[in-house]
């Protein structure tokens, strides 16, 4: 029964994550509720071992239908990978608890800005020369990758928002690019969790199959309905993240 519950949660997480990120908002609480006696690191590692497959499939699906800027995004993915390792190392030295109270306000600023700029992310219009775009994408990858390794919630949403705001992508292209960088940060996290023995592979593999199924549906919806649909889901997911992180920070 536990596998059924977490597999259903993984399917839904894969669907949401493929569109705009935020699958952890669904799957991580489901794992903690289903396996309350398990070590948190093991549940986080198992979550990553499942979600990386759905994210990878989504990245491949987007790459087949959306024009990916590979000369920009491949170096950015490497920067995200390195950033995630550094962030995971820093968390062994510094308690990330101070971010718990700060994160809801950062997400609220992102949401308000997106709502105020009604045309933000509706048109795909990269405006930087290739060198500057690559450098800025690498900076985004390194910083948000480091955040993902250090703390994590909202990583996909931050990638998407910064690609839209700073690089001029629309929400569909930004989501596609975010998937590639998320794969890199997930691989880094899995390597660290696995090295410490914090992955339940037998649970993760079952969840991975469900996550891939959800990812295929989510990617198809995003590609069919375009940037406006992704923008709407982005607003809903960021709103949910604000409520979740706010509750965790101030009421839990």
Give a quick set of tags describing it.
single chain; 252 residues; mainly alpha; 9 helices; 0% strand
Architecture overview:
The chain is mainly alpha-helical and 252 residues long. The protein contains nine helices and no strands. It has helices spanning 2-20, 24-34, 40-65, 70-90, 98-116, 130-150, 155-167, 171-195, 201-250. Helix 6 crosses helix 8. The longest helix is centred in the last third of the chain and has 50 residues, at 201-250. The protein is globular and about 50 Å long.
Topology:
Elements: H1 2-20, H2 24-34, H3 40-65, H4 70-90, H5 98-116, H6 130-150, H7 155-167, H8 171-195, H9 201-250
Helix pairs in contact: 1-2, 1-3, 1-9, 2-3, 3-8, 3-9, 4-6, 4-8, 5-9, 6-7, 6-8, 7-8, 8-9
Shape: globular
Low-confidence stretches: none
Care to count the β-strands? Answer: 0
State the helix count: 9
How many strands, which pairing sense, and closed or not: the largest β-sheet? none
Radius of gyration of CA atoms, rounded to a whole number: 17 Å
Order of H and E elements: HHHHHHHHH
What is the arithmetic mean of pLDDT?
92
How large is the share of residues in beta strands?
under 5%
**What gap, in angstroms, lies between the N and C termini?**
28 Å
- Structural class comes to mainly alpha
- Provide the helix percentage: over 70%
Give a short summary of the structure.
The chain is an all-alpha fold and 252 residues long. The protein has helices at 2-20, 24-34, 40-65, 70-90, 98-116, 130-150, 155-167, 171-195, 201-250.
